[in-house]
Amino acid sequence: GSARRQVLRSAETLHHPFSISVFEDFIYWTDWDQQAIFRANKFNGSNVTPITAVHMLQNPMVLHVYHPYRQPDGINYCAAVNGHCSHLCLPAPQVNPRSPKISCGCPDGLVLMADGLMCTEDSHSREEDVNGLSKDILPLEEPDNGLVAGIVIAIVTVVLILISLIALAVYRHYLHRNVTSMNFDNPVYRKTTEDQFSLEKNQYQPTRIYPSTVGEEAQEPLTSPGTNDYV
């Protein structure tokens, strides 16, 4: 606001003020550090006095001054016959002398009639059938239990499949970690196609025919296909 003026400034008195209220010639405030309520002259800040014992209130919060001068008694226009309202009577703000004293309200499902006093059923939310029985325009739909159960079963199945795949992957990884492999050099696998053919040829050993005479044995070469002796 305008015309602001500093009334009180003191590091010894104002430790941690929190809530302020003004009434008549005094200003009141609460102090968290001193845990008390103080008052002082609202014009010059003099005569600072605790109105409660210091360190007796634990974290005093909002401060209000209640007095008939602060809250003057007014006329309750709803007291007499509920303001002629059928349900709820509410005091109305007095903007000008011609402002209404009260306003009527209706609970859910009812609307205020043109007279501003009576409440009636809302015709937009309900309709009358041929038998004269009222029913809701938008009835509540019952949930499809079969659809809900199917969705739940599908979700549980997918979760179980994922858990199974993860467990299988972990198990295979664990097996591969515990397998010890040993490599042996085999010269057979390093041979070419011709060497392999020679090897297979040498592996074929037909039934050896022994010569009947010493002369025939002497005529047989040492490197014949039926022997593995080499000179």
Protein model, in words:
- Keywords: EGF-like domain, Membrane, Repeat, Transmembrane, Transmembrane helix.
- Residues 209-231 are annotated as: Disordered.
- The chain crosses the membrane at residues 147-171.
- It is a single chain.
- Strand 7 (110-112) and strand 8 form a beta hairpin.
- The protein is α+β, with helices and mostly antiparallel strands and 231 residues long.
- It has three helices and ten strands; from the N terminus they run E-E-E-E-E-E-E-E-E-E-H-H-H.
- The chain has helices at residues 145-178, 193-203, 214-219, and strands at 17-23, 26-31, 36-41, 49-50, 88-91, 102-105, 110-112, 119-121, 126-128, 134-136.
- Among the domains are: 1-73, Thrombin, subunit H, CATH 2.40.10; 74-109, Laminin (Ribbon), CATH 2.10.25.10.
- Helix content is 22%, strand content 18%.
- The relative contact order is 0.05.
- The chain starts with 16 loop residues before the first strand and ends in a 12-residue tail after the last helix.
